[in-house]
Amino acid sequence: MSSPCLPVEIYIEILKVLPTSKSDPAEHTLLSCLQASSVTRTAALCSVCWKTPYDVRYTHCVCENEKKRKEASGGDWRLMYIERRRLDRRALRLLDEIREERSGRHERVRCFTQYSFDVWDALKLESELNVPNYFGGLSEGPLPVNVPADALPRRYWAQAVLGVISRHSTLKRLAQVFTSPEGKNTSFEEALGALSSFFDVSPKEVTLQLDEIYAQCLETLSAENVPLSPGEPGYDFWFLCTQIRHSIHQLGFRLADGPQFYSVMNQFPHHFLSPGHRETIPMSLVYVYVAIARRLGINASPANFPGVVQVHIQPPDPREEPRLLDMRGTDEPVIFRYCGSSYGAAHSPASDEATRAATPDKMLTRAYNNIIMFMRYERVYAGGMSLPWSSEAHEAAFYATSCLMMLEAPNPQFMPSLPSSKPLDAVAVLQDVMAPALPPITRATVSGYCYSVMEEHEESAKNVSLRSAFPHVKYFVGLVMKHAICRAGEHLARFPI
């Protein structure tokens, strides 16, 4: 009698293409196969079956740690998956301690800066837990069922820890941009993308957004038969540069007008890269162009041009001069020596730096000046124009601005503006990352401030504030009571209570 099971090879091919997503991981199917029979267990133990579930679940990692995991497991995706899941469980247990125990939170969150992006994906899932039906506006799609009773606090603290991990990493990079020669090698994409960390967004998430936009631009360029490499027939470098701008415009990226131009969120990549928010300022349009062009092998950079940020394009032929590209319209790239006639009084001959590829510190300085101006505009004018603005967004934006200003200033005389929405940043971010990058005098001041914040939180955790000055209250408001002897007359029984 023949076996009812298919050959192992067929099961392996089926499991390799098993549909998977973060909301519906294939690991459940693979675990069931491990228990079903010896044949399906043999197939589910195959490393290649775990590659797709691993890639879908884990989009973030610490590169050095990932390399060690691959070496330790011999490249076995199943063993790597198991190791990451163990790490996830340790991180979630630590997160529960932060949520449940008020004292010691700042020391515990330091452990997450060591885990870093290795636990990002687990925390991200925790921050997106379904909420009860009466908070249905926080969830997309149908109303959830079987929601954890503690979903809201779990979401809150997971989001807070995500922000700490992201800012701990990006502030190190930003500190290098302003304080060390190695920081000059930071790309414009990395430098400006780091600003989104102040909204609890990781650099990898911004990169994934840009990768998606790049893929869409490639589709547009291919559909219009634009040669992309010098080896293709009809290749024209400058024509390709203008077509890249055209493909970006087709995706909805264009110059904002009216009050929308002054939205403070126009300076944060995770926002203006999202569909529906792509009408933005010139610097953000240049950011998108530079990211797409560099993925195509074109040496594009921002130019810190007076008035409007331009794209600086260095052609592959060293005999050709670099040119500037304006992202606002459809003008051809301009050779530097024609900038005066093309832009009129906007170009200052004394400011030769304005027509060169800008360094990341110059663009970050311009970015935080934009943020300050936009915040002032929204606060002063938005109320009269009935324009929405978020105080929480302004707090996060000003937090970013204060950190950048402190890193840039040779001897800053102010403190970082730590918002209440970032309750775990004082030690793990400001004390451990920001303070060491500052001059000695300012470093001591910032360290003292961070220590006082931590002490205040610890003292608050020890004190129990009673809502009443009467400690012997027996009953609470709303308690249903039944009298031993009803003193009400029978005539009151007709009236409902």
Automatic annotation (TrEMBL):
Superkingdom of the organism of origin: Eukaryota
InterPro entries xref list: SirB1_N
Residue ranges of every copy of the Protein SirB1 N-terminal domain listed in the record: 205-366
UniProt name for this protein: Protein SirB1 N-terminal domain-containing protein
